[in-house]
Structures are given as C-alpha cells and as structure tokens.
C-alpha cells in the first residue's frame, strides 16, 4: 500500500492541541490515531492524508490549515515561480504595447 505523506506545520498542530489543553495521548484517542503517530507527526511533520483529515476533523478546521504549501516548500521553488511570473508579465506587456 503506497501512502502519500504530506508535510505539516508542526507548530500549528502543537498550538491547536495545547489550546484545547489536550495531551498527545488525548489527541490520539479523540482522533483515532495512535500515540506513536501523534508523536511522529509533531516531531517530523509528516502524515498520511488520512491522518491529516483526522486531525483537521478533531480541531474543527480545514486540512489546508495544517499543511505546508508544497509548491512554496523551498526557497528555490519560490524564486523560480517569482521569476516565471515576472517573465510572463514582461511578455504580456511587450506584446500589449505592440498593438
């Protein structure tokens, strides 16, 4: 079985848990996940889609709130996206002036 793991905002998960005054054990119980899974998620920041959905459900939020945006996960990707956007804007402006 090939599970796709997602990168999570560990600080956000800990903050949400602590705001409810829940221990990791209690979060595991209410989410239906194992204690070891909760510990791994808070330490490593990776989880399956099913685990993300379970956490979002118990925190009464959307899964996106817990996820690190994979497109901008690293600086090189962000810089590349910014440069590509600038190039597209330049090309559009150049051809717009031609008309």
Measured distance between first and last alpha carbons: 56 Å
Can you tell me the residue ranges where pLDDT is under 50 for at least 5 consecutive residues? Answer: none
Mean pLDDT: 87
Helix content percent band = 55-70%
Q: Based on CA inertia axes, which overall geometry fits?
A: elongated
Q: What pattern of helices and strands is seen along the backbone?
A: EHHHEHH
Order the strands across the largest sheet as they lie in space.
Answer: 1-2
Q: What summary fits the major beta sheet?
A: 2 strands, antiparallel
Q: How many β-strands, per DSSP?
A: 2
Which structural class fits the helix and strand makeup?
mainly alpha
Task: Write structural notes for this entry.
The protein has helices at 10-19, 24-31, 35-44, 49-58, 75-98; strands at residues 5-7, 46-48. It has 99 residues and is mostly helical. It is elongated and about 65 Å long. The termini are far apart.
Summarize this structure as a short list of keywords or feature phrases.
mainly alpha, two-stranded antiparallel sheet, elongated, 5 helices, 99 residues, 2 strands, 63% helix
Quick recap:
By secondary structure, this protein is mainly alpha-helical.
